[in-house]
Amino acid sequence: MPKQHRAGRPQSQSRAGLPKKAPVGRVKPATPLATPVSPRPAQRPTPPPPAPAPAKPRFHEAVALYEGAVRLLQRHEFAAAAEQFRAVIAGYPDERELLERARLYLRVCERETSRQPAASPRTPEERVYAATMALNSGDLKAALSYLRQALDENPSHDHGHYIMAVALTEARDFDEALAHLQDAVRLNPDNVGLARQDPDLEDLRARPEFTGILTTAQARRTPAPADRKARRR
Asked: Using CA atoms, how far apart are residues 129 and 121, in angstroms rounded to an integer?
């Protein structure tokens, strides 16, 4: 009798009679992509504060003209001082602080000139003042007469030469006006700033010699570097 084999489960089947599944390894969950981070913009360095603007050359001219007017006021030459204060106000409208002082002193000069009696002038200063008043009233002939007398008595009266230049400009005698202007700025370089802005010399400024006269006077006023070193010693 043939040997019977004991029925057994096929190796490829499980107890339930189902085929075994091939072992599957664990699959790791996919790592989520990191959200890209935008790089911070590089901070720009804070710029340094701007340097203060250098003083304008016109400011120095205005100060020189103003200080000359103050000196005239201190010498009681009220008419001449008033004229220079008006030149500061008209020629340098941007210098507000200086203009306030100039207006204040101008009122002082105008008040003092209104108090002075209209007496016959006896000194060169009084004659120059009388000439200024005559020019303001339109009496050119009287102004020239007063000025000639004043300069005959005092040829070094710088303001007398300046007012003579103004009067001769009005008389259209430009050559003679330039000669007196040259004397005025030679004797007192402060007259340079006044001449540059004075509306009464507008016709004279059109002459080519005018700029040369003022430039020469300004150069004499400013010492050369070698002269400065010698003075320090």
From this structure: 8
CB-based contacts of 162, cutoff 8 Å, min separation 6: 180, 181, 184, 191, 194, 195
Farthest-apart Cα atoms in the chain, separation: 179
CB atoms within 10 A of CB 207: 17
Query: How many CA atoms does the CB half-sphere of 5 hold within 13 Å?
Result: 3
Residue 180 tokens, joined: 């007196």
Phi/psi region, residue 173 (left: phi>0; alpha: psi -120 to 50; beta: rest), is beta
Which residues pair with residue 19 across a beta bridge? 13
Please tell me the chain's helix, strand, coil percentages from 3-state DSSP, rounded to the nearest 5: 60, 0, 40
Contact criterion met (CB below 8 Å) for 44 and 56: no
Closest CA to 69 of 194, 226, 228: 194
Going by C-alpha positions, the residue among 138, 133, 136 that lies closest to residue 146 is 133
The β-bridge partners of 13 are 19
pLDDT digits (tens, 9 = 90+) for 63-94: 888 988 888 888 888 888 888 898 888 888 88
Prediction pTM value? 0.55
What is d(CA 77, CA 58) in angstroms, rounded to the nearest whole number? Answer: 26
